[in-house]
Structures are given as structure tokens and as C-alpha cells.
Amino acid sequence: MNIIQKYMSIYMFELERFLLTKKDVLKAVAYQSDEANTDRPLKELLKQLIETEFNQLPNDSAIEFLKINNEEYDILHLKDIIIKRVLLPEDITQEIKAIIAATKNSVYTNPDICFELIINNELFYEPVELKSTKQNSIPGSSVQQINPNEWVIFIKHSNKIVDIATGQYLHAINTKMQFPDRSPRPQVSFDELKKWNVEKRLVNGDKLLFATDSEEDIKKSLIKDWQRVLSQRWIDVLFNSTSVKVNEPWFNNNIRKFIIDFLEEYEKLNEQEKEHFKNKIRSLIIK
User: Model-level pTM?
Assistant: First the structure.
């Protein structure tokens, strides 16, 4: 793990605890109505809180060690790292965009906020997603834009309550994905992230431990090859459905009609023609 990954693992844990003490302030923010991207007032509030009250790891924290994937790290040197600024989208220059883009394997989009970190007198930039919801699940980013390791601040709010969870984007994905009209957007869920934190992010004495997650590969496959995930779901509809479910998606019926029409054409082919047809389809699949 590099130093930024270690720092963000412990800082975001501590930030969650800090923000839970600011529920009254967060409750007063004007939120958009169940939008995936949080609105301007929340970004400005987080910028102000972090820059003025929580721009580095707290000295009085009981956490002294970080353990991830059975590797243990002393965090003492991480306490020297400072968040110099919290950048809003308009603060991110072309130069900073290029720096962030160089670290991403996904399509670049402006982050909701970005931490400008000072580490050993050098500047580094770490994007952070903000999500808010009145319910639980909301559409996330389009699949091409997802960086599964990006950090997220997730806020669940209503007129009466505010709850906060922080973690990596991957652990907020609940594997549900609507049939895409343009680019698929796997759902992200506040409860999913909260549950992951309870089960996998553990405090043991002076150690913060992140346990191995057996479902990570499933979620990564959803991001890496969402078309195959949809194909497998459609196969499941055809082979395992014995009745039509209440409020079943419209395209399930379309899939059934398509497969009947397809099979009627396919069965007219001889064995050589069938093999040629399959090879032709394979050659047209974009990797």
C-alpha cells in the first residue's frame, strides 16, 4: 500500500466519527432530492468543516496501527500529513485534472470534492465522492466512470435524522443494476456501506482492521464486465423462471420473445452454419 492509501483508510474512518458529532449542522443543509450527486451547500459545508476543524488525524485518537489484508502498519508518521485545501469542482485546474487522471483507470470526471494533501512538503490530490439519499439506494456513477477504490462520504438524511458512513466506492455498490438506456449505473446503497463497515472495518484495541471481503470479486466483475453480468442475468431469466413475477421488468418478456425468434432461425442452420454463425458473433464482440 502507498502512503496515501494508508492515510485515507484511517482518515476517512476518523472523519466519519467526526461528522457524526456534527449531525445538527448536517441536518440543516439544503439537500437535493435523492440525487446521486450532492448539492453545493453540502460541498461548501464539508470544505469548511474539514479545512478548519479536521484537516489531519486527531492527536487524541486511540488508533495507533492499521491492519489491511493481514499487513500491519504503524500510523505515527501519517499524523504529519495535512489536508491543505478541500477543492470544489471549480478549484480543480487543468494541471490538477491531469494529475488525477494519471492515477485513474476509469474515465475522468470532475470529483465532487478533492483533498489537497501535503506529504513531506509535496502536494498530492485525492478525489472524494459525495452521495446523499433520503431512502437507501440511488443510482451511482456510470460504470465507465467508477473507480472502485475511490473514497466516498455517504449521507442518509430526512427531516428528523442524519447518518453518515464513509468508505470506498466498491463497498457501497449493492450489485443491483437497472437495464441501461445509455450507460449502466450500478446502484450504491448507504445501508450496504454501513453494513460493510460494521462487518469488515473493525477496531481492536489500538488497531483499525479492514477484513478480507469475499464479495469484492463479484462487485469488481460488475464494474469490469457489466455486459457479461447482464447476459448471465438474462440467461437466468430464461432457464430458471417458472412464472412471471409481479412488477417484472418489461425487458424480461422481450428477452423471452427474442429467444424464441432467435432459436427458430438458428435451428434452420446445419452444424457447420451454426459454428460459422457463432464465430461471426464472437468476432463482432468489442473487448
Answer: 0.69
